[in-house]
Amino acid sequence: MVRALCLLAGAFILWATCQEHLAGQAQPQDPSPSTVNAPPSEEQEVVPAPVPAAPRSPGLLPLQVVADIEPADYPKLPVVFHEGILVIVGEGGVAEAYAVESGEFLWKLGLPGKDLHPPVVTPKGLLFALGEGALLMVEPETGEILDEKKAPAPIDIRPVIEGDVAFLASSSGLVIAFDYVTGLEIWRADTREPVQALALGGELLVVSGAGGTLTAIELPSGEVRWRFLGQGTFEAPASFDPEAERIYVGDSAGVFYCLNADKGNKRFKWETGVSIVGRPLVDRDRVFVVTYGNTLYCYRRSNGHLLWRANFNGRPASGPVRVNARIVVPIRDGFLLELDPSAQGQRRQPPHPVGSEIRSPPSFEPPYVALALRSGRVLLMKTGAPVPIPLPPPTAPPTEVVKEE
């Protein structure tokens, strides 16, 4: 018995000695006096501490002015960005290009007295259309004319393109598919009324007519698939859902429609009572519509349920634009309004003044923004500035919320 107790005591002492030894190894070693606060040697690389990035705006605002441009002539709409260049076309037939980083003038294309439309960006350059019936391919960096093709009819609105095909339209109602590389006409279709706007989606070209007719033309055949008669005129391009199965459009009578792309029949409609401004914005499972009643409507894209509406002061200059996590509405009196769609259209920033009445929606080449003003100037701005100190919540939300059924 005594022997067993002695063995047990010896084992315990051995275990305790090992634990003490291991604990001593785990203790950190004191630095040598020669290394404390020693300057780095020539072999050591000094890595500066990382500087935390400034927070970025979740939307468009705030903005910094890059240049306040006064073009030679009153600008047509839209102003066009292309790879660091801003192109402005005037009503007198002069196109001017400016560097977006500085606003520096780069080149001018002068066709005095010609009805020159703002260019369309193509892989081959900038495609300019002349009202008399011609297409010019222009080198973006120099303004040099690379090619010219004679069109088979007058061109009264800015074309839209798909591949090497430009879709041209005239006030007579004629729409022509034209190969701008070979100069050959592919097909023509008669919409029976002056053309206001063109929109491409899937296998359709949708034509907005001044007589209140929406005409869908099949691609690539050029056959008219269907016509839809609205309650007012269609002044803006239609919008498509991501699958190009549905079409969303508003008219001057204040009616917002959702149509099946296949047959043109109505899926749903809403009568807002006031003329709809610009093109509807299709975003994820929502559709946003602005009216001259100074209201932004938010509908569910699939069934047309009204989710909420936001009222604002001032007449809108165009339809809504999505910028990051915000919806931007230009106000004609000279303000950019930014609304939060995740909070039923509440404002997270004060309206941004631009110093003059606004003519059009902003044009973008992130982080740069261009805005045409009624004074004839074009404001070139840059977004992405650090977020300012948050404002206190408004005492009365500028939003009327309508719950979904």
Please give a structural write-up.
This protein has one helix at 2-26; strands spanning 63-69, 80-82, 85-89, 94-99, 105-110, 120-122, 125-130, 134-138, 145-150, 160-162, 165-169, 174-179, 184-190, 195-201, 204-209, 213-218, 224-229, 239-240, 246-250, 255-260, 266-271, 276-283, 286-291, 295-300, 306-311, 321-323, 326-331, 335-340, 346-347, 352-353, 363-365, 368-372, 378-383. The relative contact order is 0.11. The protein is globular and about 50 Å long. Strands 26, 27, 28, 29 and 30 form a 5-stranded antiparallel sheet that branches. A 4-stranded antiparallel sheet has the order 1-33-32-31, with no helix packed on it. The termini are far apart. It has one domain (63-383): 7 Propeller (Methylamine Dehydrogenase, Chain H), CATH 2.130.10.10. The model is unreliable at 1-9, 18-41 and 387-405 (pLDDT under 50). The chain is 6% helix and 42% strand. With 405 residues, the chain is mainly beta. A hairpin with a 2-residue loop joins β2 and β3 (85-89).
Which keywords apply here?
405 residues, mainly beta, Methylamine Dehydrogenase, Chain H, five-stranded antiparallel beta sheet, four-stranded antiparallel beta sheet, 33 strands, globular, disordered C terminus
What is the CA-atom radius of gyration, in angstroms? 31 Å
How many separate helices?
Answer: 1
Ends apart, CA distance between termini: 87 Å
Number of domains: 1
- Helical content stands at under 10%
Shape: globular
Fraction in beta strands: 35-45%
Strand runs, count = 33
* Uncertain ranges: 1-9, 18-41, 387-405
Q: What's the oligomerization state? A: single chain
CATH superfamily: YVTN repeat-like/Quinoprotein amine dehydrogenase
The CATH class, by name, is Mainly Beta
State the major sheet: 5 strands, antiparallel
What's the architecture, going by CATH? Answer: 7 Propeller
| Average of the residue pLDDT scores | 85
Q: What is the structural class?
A: mainly beta
CATH topology: Methylamine Dehydrogenase, Chain H
